[in-house]
Specification:
about 220 residues; eight-stranded parallel barrel
Length: about 220
């Protein structure tokens, strides 16, 4: 059974507290926090995600799954570490210097947080194979990062399959997470490809019954 990380990106401020409670009741495994800086991607969600993390820390014990789509990575790690996230995932493409990437991954782990590495749809998995042993999670973007509600790019499923095969062959202790355009109609394809954590925002939030959708996605 897969785990579900529900993205709060599409939740309006007026509905956030009620939505948090309803998602907790529906047994989401994580709250997915999409942090965008307006530089690495077009949109800027920093202020809203900080506000949502304030609410989450006060009303739920569901783990936070923080996804940093930012250029100044260390700055935003420090901004969200006080919320005690279970996972902080950073983008491979945010670094030109491999040593700086490695130092940043170590920095996250030194702060008692699991670390993830994310790749965009056009980034080949060969780019990250040499660092898989030092991360806990690989987040495969199944859409271009930066906006909710996009349609899943089917070719990314092959990337998940390749990664899953490699992880099993090398007996690596990591999880594969998939994020972007995942809903009840295509979630089985994503799971069959090898994803173990499913990120879904619109696919859950737009439904009338969170319990039913999350249960079906997990099955």
């Amino acid at each position: 059974m897969v785990e579900i990380s529900t993205s709060l990106l599409g939740v309006k401020k007026d509905n956030i507290i009620k939505t948090i409670y309803n998602l907790e009741t529906a047994k989401t495994d994580y709250f997915h926090i999409d942090v965008m800086d307006g530089v690495f991607v077009k949109d800027n969600t920093v202020e809203r995600m900080v506000e949502y993390c304030d609410y989450l820390n006060n009303i739920t014990n569901i783990p936070l799954d923080v996804h940093l789509m930012v250029s100044d990575v260390r700055k935003y790690i420090d901004l969200f570490l006080p919320y005690n996230p279970n996972i902080i995932t950073i983008h491979y493409e945010a670094f030109k210097d491999k040593n700086k990437l490695l130092d940043t991954l170590d920095y996250i782990k030194l702060n008692n947080c699991k670390v993830g590495i994310s790749i965009k749809p056009n980034t080949d998995i060969s780019e990250i194979l040499d660092i898989l042993e030092i991360v806990h999670i690989v987040l495969v973007m199944t859409v271009e990062p930066g906006k909710g509600g996009q349609k899943l790019i089917n070719t990314t499923l092959n990337k998940i399959k390749q990664l899953s095969k490699y992880v099993k062959e090398k007996n690596l202790d990591i999880l594969i997470e998939a994020d972007g355009g995942i809903n009840i109609d295509n979630v089985n394809d994503v799971k069959e490809s090898g994803a173990e954590i499913i990120v879904s925002g619109t696919g859950i939030i737009s439904s009338e019954n969170y319990d039913e959708i999350i249960k079906k996605m997990k099955e």
